[in-house]
Amino acid sequence: MSTQQFSEFDFFKKRLGQTERLLAIKQQQIDSLLEITRAVNNNMPITALARIYENILHAQLAVSKIALFINEKDDAWICITPGELPSTVLNYSVHEKFSKHSFIMSVAAFKDEMLEGFEYLIPVTHKKEPIGYVLIGPFGNDQSDTKEEKLKFIQTITNIIVVANENKKLFKSQLDQVVMQKELKLAADMQNMLVPSSLPNNDKIEAAAYYKPHKNIGGDYYDLVNISEHEFAFCISDISGKGIPAALLMANFQANLRTLITRKYQLPQFIDILNGKVGEITKGEKFITLFIATYNTQTRILTYVNAGHNPSILYYKGEVQLLDQGCTILGMFDTLPYINYGEVKIEPGSLIVNYTDGLSEASNNEGKMFEVEGLIDYIEGHHTLELTDFNTKLIDQVIAYKQDTDFDDDITLLTLRFK
Question: Most-buried pick from 123, 220, 327, 328 (CB within 10 A)?
């Protein structure tokens, strides 16, 4: 074999060796991608994914330094490859410093001493929004692959890790939403069980109610409770807050109210005890407005206390009386500073309209509220209607009054006609 032939043989042998090494590297990279993918599919925690990620970069690419940052939640960026990194790197304001960069960059361009030892920044974006950043130090001396190819591989594997984390967050958010919806439905069902499923319509009293929470769960409550053969109590209240906390407070409030009202306390004493119970439950953090009245069908005497609630409206033959005697809202003071009560003789045909402020404070496009005057005008024109129709038409009128604006509070009506 000639010298030239030996030279060509050595050249091809060398090229073959390089190709084999390159193929081995590519196979190793493919194996690494498969390993990461399997780990993601097995729903391994992000900390385990981070360890696999570090091992691949250290073992295969001889990367000396790694700092991978992900957006955990609420723009809180954390480093999931802390290793032996100094606190200056772990607490680095990556989003503030790097958010405008979407391509691989040399760290030297930032001229920041805190990034000493790092060579490249690789951002990870989704829909043009950054979702991760990795800072990497110098590579080893392996010449079997170009630096550009190594950076592309790191970018690919980093994308898998960061996108997997985003998917976990999205799945958890969706799962939380499903759980929340179930909890809200349960709380809404519980609230519906707390209000009467039917109201009396007999020779003594006709009653009808309308209840519409602003969302699935509201803070309004009404009730009608028989105390004895000739006496019953009715109430309407507005509990501060919305959602599940309001539903739980409502359940506690109803239990205490129903227990206490059947013990036949005088209303001022009843209100004083109930205020203490509300304080025990809420620790002064939530409050309740309440209108409550007892009515004796034999004496026709109605006794009431208005605890900071919208005054109920008593209507009889064109005369209107606002039932506003009482005390401050419940739960604000350990001991109520005063408790007044009102007493009214009820004539046959009298109408009482109890409501919450979602009705009276309904506003139109000009910001003008419906107010008590709007209720009184409606009562004067519709007081002869059956109470179910009375309530329905009143709600329709308020909806028409609001024009294009939406209701921003619960709406509750409890209407009674005394016979």
Answer: 220
